Amino acid sequence: MCSHQPPCPPADSADHEAARVVASHPEQGWSLLCNGVVVFDDTGELLPEGRTVEPRRPALV
Questions:
Q1: Burial degree of 37 (CB within 10 A; 0-12, 13-18, 19+)
Q2: Whole-angstrom Cα distance, residue 45 to residue 31?
């Protein structure tokens, strides 16, 4: 999916959120990254193969 240099980290790498945004929809609360990951404003994610990543909530003190 990534055609620029240097290439974005793949969706299965630990730093996949460092990929470039290719489509942004702030009015809907999500962005599509170059590696196919959809990131949501609540920090949740949808990976290209359909797996979800739960939002990361701050620890309550």
A1: buried
A2: 10
